[in-house]
Amino acid sequence: xxxxxxxIPSASGxxxxxxxxxxxxxxxxxxxxxxxxxxxxxxxxxxAIHYAPRIAPLPHWLTQHLTGTRPAGPPVDPVTTLTxxxxxxxxxxxx
Length: 95
Prior knowledge:
Order of helices and strands: EEHH
Low-confidence stretches: none
Distance between the termini: 18 Å
Number of strands: 2
Strand content: under 5%
Structural class: mainly alpha
Number of helices: 2
Radius of gyration: 15 Å
Helix content: 10-25%
Largest sheet: 2 strands, antiparallel
């Protein structure tokens, strides 16, 4: 979950700030993407919540990276950093 007031644009493909092939979906400047979640209905049925862990806040460094407000500095490898954060949060079973 992103912080209040942060505008995170949707991006995909080579334009993704997290790297090629890592899609970002947000209601920001570039819209048109979609997220499937609880209540969404598709031909196979309706999505429902079966496991509801607490949603962690979006890390500050990732918010900065996605909104383009990151201060100048050495580049961050978002995949390695995000993977490490997922393991620290005990969510590795979701990978």
